[in-house]
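input
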Amino acid sequence: MTVRPRVRVPAGLPVWIYVPAAVGALLVVLPLVAMLVGVDWPNFWELVTSESSLDALVLSLKTASISTLLCVLLGVPMAMVSARCSFPGLAALRALVLLPLVLPPVVGGLALLYTFGRRGLIGQHLEVAGIQIAFSTTAVVLAQTFVALPFLVISLEGALRTAGRRYEAVAATLGAPPTTVLRRVTLPLVLPGLISGAVLAFARALGEFGATLTFAGSLQGVTRTLPLEIYLQRETDPEAAVALSLVLVVVAVAIVLGARTRRAAGAL
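output
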């Protein structure tokens, strides 16, 4: 008697679920389409290559890159401690680290101002030494790092928990010191998660507005990033604001697609 193997048929989705899914997709896509329609295409290049626009774009890319590097340097150890250690107060500490995810950016900017401002908790001591952080390019980097850091931490922490500790335990058993285990075993295992977290951090830093405006101000070539330039142009030159918004959207889409492509390639 021949036993036929069971064929598992995936359960279909209920028909009604496509309706809210389509509405949600339209809610995201329609505004982008409307923006594309509203772009002054004959003058697009002229609008996005003005002096103030180029200054804002260059500053945004530079500060976002630096803040992403800081997120990697600080976020990797933070994620390691959160995923691999256990001590009293860890849950509360983790909640505080992830707080910028839900905190209004303006509140984050005020917190940074009261920390690094001229009369801030740390800023008043730096002022005595002749170091001023608020309303400088450094303030832009700090604001972007503040809001982007949790994205890298939570992404890498999830990758660490998924990877488990088996290979690390084997390497330690074979006599590898902790730093070697971290460098040769742990980081290669979670590299896709680290890359995804870094990409998310860069995208978040690139689009940061509220904390930057509150803590760094809006000085052309110094603290006026692309989102701030778009906000200012909206009042004086709406066509330029729409054109610059499209540039920011294109950069963000390229970042997301690049991250997904790299992650898919790593999974093969």
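quick obs: The first helix runs from residue 18 to 38.
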